[in-house]
Design brief:
The C terminus is likely disordered. It is built from seven helices and no strands. It is an all-alpha fold.
Length: 129
């Protein structure tokens, strides 16, 4: 419709909510977790399954762990098989936590939990993201 009638404004989610495609739900989920929301709250608010939320948080944790081990954003993107834009945004979120004590505490809690669940299928689900 946008191609055949460009004069008609089609209300897209990305325009109405001022969000871009692809990254938005992933970063929104991570932000919600860093704000202290539970998985149940995130699932309800953002309309995602617990498995999807766990997947995005797992990827975020592995991204931050990799950075803390000295890897660059392109190296992390390659190793995690994720796009460089997502990895850069995740690293920005982690950096933003340094100025917010509440988010910093939640980040460290995510990191602690990420360290404990290192085996695939440890919680009965997939742990790769």
């Amino acid at each position: 419709m946008r191609e055949t009638s460009p004069e008609i404004a089609v209300p897209l989610r990305s325009l109405r909510q001022d969000i871009g495609p692809v990254l938005t739900h992933r970063t929104a989920i991570v932000k919600a977790a860093l704000d202290g929301k539970t998985t149940s709250e995130i699932c309800y608010d953002l309309r995602h399954s617990p498995e999807a939320v766990a997947n995005y948080l797992s990827t975020f944790v592995r991204c931050v762990q990799s950075q803390r081990h000295g890897l660059s954003a392109p190296e992390i993107a390659f190793l995690l098989r994720r796009g460089p834009t997502l990895i850069e945004r995740y690293l920005e979120l982690a950096t933003e936590c340094e100025t917010d004590p509440n988010r910093a505490a939640h980040l460290e809690e995510l990191m602690r939990l990420g360290q404990a669940g290192g085996k695939k299928g440890a919680a009965g689900g997939r742990t790769h993201g």
